[in-house]
Amino acid sequence: MTALESPFSLSLEDMRTHRSAKWSRVPADVLPAWTAEMDVRTAPAISEALQTAIGRSDFGYAGSPAPVVEAFASFARDVWDWETQDGPGRTRLFADVGHGVTEVLRAITSPGERVVINPPVYLSFYPWLRSLQLDPLEVPMREHASGVQLDLEGMEHALASGARVVLLCSPHNPLGHVYSAEELAAVADLAAAHDAVVISDEIHAPLVHPGSPRPFAPFLTVSDAARQVGIALHSPSKAWNTAGLKLAVGVTAAEGRWPDIREELDWAPSILGQYAAIAAYTDGREWLDEVRAEIEERTAQLGPLLAEHLPDVRYRPGHASYLAWLDCRELGLGDDPARVFLERGLVQLSPGPAFGTGGAGHARLNIGTSLELMTEAVRRMAAALG
Ligand SMILES: Cc1ncc(COP(=O)(O)O)c(C=O)c1O
Question: How far is the CA of 233 from the centre of ligand 1 (A)?
Answer without folding.
Answer: 10
